[in-house]
């Protein structure tokens, strides 16, 4: 079982550590990469040896966070996970498994965190792990430089859909304001993260839209992309995350699904839910997890089987009396 820490205790443990390896989750998003990079820069500012490891390549759109990649140049004495809810999310590439056998510290905002680390700083009310990490770095006595501010703002903005999702709180905006004051280049970041779309990503969206399906009397909308279609479009897999919000944006839809076939043939399923519907409950019953309005899971088998399995759980969630009362 993990021992829960507060911000001060987590900062103290990080300040006392050295030779620190920071782990991000597979299929990295802006929050895990932004946090990994920000923490690495903060630790280096204290004169410590630190580096970042991710199972998958860091998407080019996040290259400005300048993560220091781990290449085995030191023997990790402390392993820290950022924005990772369970060990299954670390991935298998880049030698990741040898460093995930024992995790010392975890900073996370997923309420379903499995407690795999020895010590955990967890706040399910935080809209992003970056919201928590801002407090930790400040408590460490490290100056929030423009680079660190850019990294943390990236985590905040991407995990809240540019502050549109229901997880966004007053504190989220307060932290964002402090990051702006510290030098975060908000206009440039928002343009890069939300308003700039590669042609390959637009082609993938065109294909996904052609697969749009409605289920359960129109309460659920589903899109999918096969592995061949993803390769045909040439899209960076990280850019497909943006497509997850398309089905739920349709009028009258309570649950939006995006199914993406992975290199091994399984289907990664992103679940987005309207107010009053629990996306995490849907995903959790299939071995996944996430947040109330945004969650995901991965299923083996062909497309038809994946559709049937996820739609059955969506129907069960939508037909719960509590859901019908709230909707």
Automatic annotation (TrEMBL):
- Lineage: superkingdom: Bacteria
DHHA1 domain segment(s):
232-313
User: Which residue intervals define the domain DDH in the entry?
Assistant: 19-155
Gene Ontology terms, MF aspect: nucleic acid binding
The residues the entry assigns to the signal sequence are none
Enumerate the Pfam families for this protein. DHH (PF01368), DHHA1 (PF02272)
Which organism is this entry from? Faecalibacterium prausnitzii L2-6
**What SUPFAM superfamilies does the record tag this protein with?**
DHH phosphoesterases
Write down what this protein is called: Exopolyphosphatase-related proteins
Q: Which PANTHER family match?
A: BIFUNCTIONAL OLIGORIBONUCLEASE AND PAP PHOSPHATASE NRNA
* InterPro entries for this protein: DDH_dom, DHH_sf, DHHA1_dom, Oligoribo/pAp-PDE_c-di-AMP_PDE
């Amino acid at each position: 079982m993990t021992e829960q820490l507060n911000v001060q205790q987590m900062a103290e443990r990080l300040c006392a550590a050295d030779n620190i390896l920071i782990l991000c989750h597979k299929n990295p998003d802006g929050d895990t990469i932004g946090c990994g990079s920000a923490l690495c820069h903060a630790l280096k500012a204290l004169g410590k040896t630190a580096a970042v490891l991710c199972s998958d390549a860091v998407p080019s759109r996040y290259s400005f966070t300048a993560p220091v990649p781990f290449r085995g140049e030191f023997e990790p004495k402390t392993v820290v996970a950022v924005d990772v809810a369970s060990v299954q999310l670390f991935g298998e590439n880049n030698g990741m498994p040898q460093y995930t056998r024992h995790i010392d510290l975890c900073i996370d905002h997923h309420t379903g965190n499995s407690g795999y680390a020895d010590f955990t700083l967890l706040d399910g009310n935080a809209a992003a792990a970056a919201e928590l990490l801002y407090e930790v770095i400040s408590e460490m006595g490290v100056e929030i430089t423009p680079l660190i501010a850019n990294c943390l703002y990236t985590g905040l903005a991407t995990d809240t859909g540019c502050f549109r999702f229901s997880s966004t709180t007053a504190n989220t905006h307060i932290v964002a304001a402090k990051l702006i004051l510290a030098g975060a280049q908000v206009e440039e970041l928002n343009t890069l993260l939300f308003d700039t779309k590669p042609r390959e990503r637009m082609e993938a969206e065109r294909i996904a839209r052609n697969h749009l399906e409605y289920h359960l009397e129109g309460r659920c909308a589903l899109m999918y992309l096969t592995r061949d279609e993803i390769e045909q479009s040439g899209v960076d897999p990280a850019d497909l995350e943006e497509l997850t919000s398309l089905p739920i944006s349709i009028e009258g839809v309570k649950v939006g699904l995006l199914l993406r076939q992975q290199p091994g043939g399984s289907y990664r399923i992103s679940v987005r839910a309207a107010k009053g519907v629990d996306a995490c409950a849907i995903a959790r019953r299939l071995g996944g997890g996430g947040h109330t309005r945004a969650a995901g899971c991965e299923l083996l088998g062909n497309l038809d089987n994946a559709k049937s399995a996820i739609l059955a759980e969506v129907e069960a969630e939508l037909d719960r009396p509590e859901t019908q009362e709230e909707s």
